[in-house]
Amino acid sequence: MTVKDDDTTARGERVLTWCTGTAPDTWPTTWALAACRLFEAQTGEHYTPTSLSMLPVPTWAGNLMLVEHEPDEDLADLPSERLRGLLWSTPFQETDLRIVAFALDGPVQRQGLGSKGWRLAMEAGRSHGLSATRLEVKSENHAAIRFYERRGLRIAQELHGYYRDGLGLLMTGPLIVDVGEA
Predict the structure, then answer these.
(1) Which residues, at least 6 apart from 17, have a Cβ–Cβ distance to it below 8 Å?
(2) Tally of domains in the chain
(3) pTM of the predicted structure, to 2 decimals
(4) Average pLDDT for residues 86-93, to the nearest whole number?
(5) Within-domain flag for 177
(6) Which band of pLDDT confidence, cut at 50, 70 and 90, is reported for residue 74?
(7) How far apart are CA 46 and CA 37, in angstroms?
């Protein structure tokens, strides 16, 4: 596990740090189950460890996990209960950074952590030579849509049947590292 962001966020005695992660198909079951719980709680999407392992998420600098830890704790030894967020992305069609999944645990939302993770993923995409961003989001997830719009993404298409329980939206835009570029 490589620390991606020296700008950790304090939370009591512990800190929150975005780190690179391995592809979900390499995760131990305990970590996969923690990711499944996070996605279910924050997005309503149901995954199993098997379905997570099939997501097109490689091991690379744009595959991020947010962990809570003691300041001097070895991040490689953390228990899965310390997972607080995921931002999984993958290069797509030679030009795009596709955000495959993005979720933060409720108690750590609205602290700038999503913006930090987004910036790190965009930096990874830019250093990989990518120039655009794309993702799918549920149409009723208004907070996420506003977050993405502030980062230059726009609704490109309605995706009927993409989600079991609602309308999906494809959002696309330029790969913008700094929100001030939007």
Answers:
(1) 3, 4, 5, 8, 66, 67, 69, 75
(2) 1
(3) 0.88
(4) 94
(5) no
(6) confident
(7) 8
